[in-house]
Amino acid sequence: MRKKNLLLLAIFTVLFVVGIFAHAIYMDAEDWREPGRRYSCVYSVRVGGLSGREVVGTTVIMVPIPATKEGKFFTPPAQKDPYFSQRLIHEILDWPEQHRKGPYFKNATEVFDNKKISGNWTTFIAETDKGYMYGFRTNETRLEDISFGREFVADYFDIFDPINNGSPVLYPVENVSEISVVPYGYAKYASNPTYDTYVYLSDNLEGGETVSFNIELEANNDPTEWPEEYCGYYTNLLLTKVNDTGYVKVRAILGQVVPHRSNSASLWSSQYVLDFYGEETSDTES
User: Fold this and answer.
1) What pLDDT does residue 201 have?
2) Cβ atoms of residues 255 and 233 within 8 Å
3) Which one of 40, 112, 175, 231 has the minimum C-beta count within 10 Å?
4) Which range among 57-61, 210-214, 219-223, 277-281 shows the weakest confidence by mean pLDDT?
5) With the C-alpha atoms ordered 111, 198, 143, 280, is the resulting torsion angle positive or negative?
6) Does residue 9 contact residue 77 with C-beta atoms inside 8 Å?
């Protein structure tokens, strides 16, 4: 009987230890999964027509920033303490100190503000008469085009009605087109809504060549929290050419791909995109 009890104790101990390892491995896979497996967003800014241009003084370019239509920035997930099993295994495996807690996600200021990028541009978050905007500043006398991109994680994105349900779009937001929806378990947009927003060019760019803006914000929902048929993303896009300075009103468009497998190309085949690239092709051919 004693041998049997010892055997059962040994089996229980082995199962307990294996269970701790298994739980730690599973939770690590959950906690440190890639941004694409979370509520995540990619923001990219390309400003062309600047390279080689000679200017005097400080040059400032400002563009829409990721925020809700009311101008609120995204909220990153809170850092959380690991479970007992994770702490134990991390100690045994001598993980680095930054992994003794859960992953840390940056807020909007940490993601966007005061970054040095190619061309000696410095980024900044500006509070303007139009609302918050994202700026690029340089004192160089010979300019280079702007190319900037960042990925960030948030607590939640509503990909079905991002404009009205607090998801980030290219802000400022004015004069949103009439939005119609179609039933999809959750209602999603029947067509691609558009709205007015702004870009800004400093006065020292006056009289120069046309400046082109290609700004994209793509946000997906968390595929670990949604059934496959509800996993997808939306893309908020600004394509425009500007030959003015100061605040210039421009048009942005939003499209959805839900579910992922639908491979919807409605945004990229829209007249909004065709007009921009059609003009670009015509300029090149001429």
Assistant:
1) 98
2) no
3) 175
4) 277-281
5) positive
6) no
What is the spatial distance between Cα 235 and Cα 257, in angstroms, rounded to a whole number? 8
Instruction: Please check the confidence at residue 242 and state whether its pLDDT lies above 70.
Output: yes
Q: CA-to-CA distance for 213 and 89, rounded, in angstroms?
A: 49
Q: Which of 9-13, 183-187, 220-224, 257-261 has the lowest mean pLDDT?
A: 9-13
pLDDT of amino acid 279: 62
Q: Map out the domains of the chain as residue ranges.
A: 36-81+105-285
**pLDDT over 80 (residue 112):** yes
Phi-psi sector, 119: left (phi>0), alpha (psi -120 to 50), beta = left
Q: Which residue has the higher pLDDT, 242 or 16?
A: 242
Residues 131-139: what's their mean pLDDT? 98
Task: Indicate the burial class of 35 (C-beta count within 10 angstroms; 0-12, 13-18, 19 or more).
Answer: middle
pTM score? 0.88
**Residues 201, 211: contact at Cβ < 8 Å?**
yes
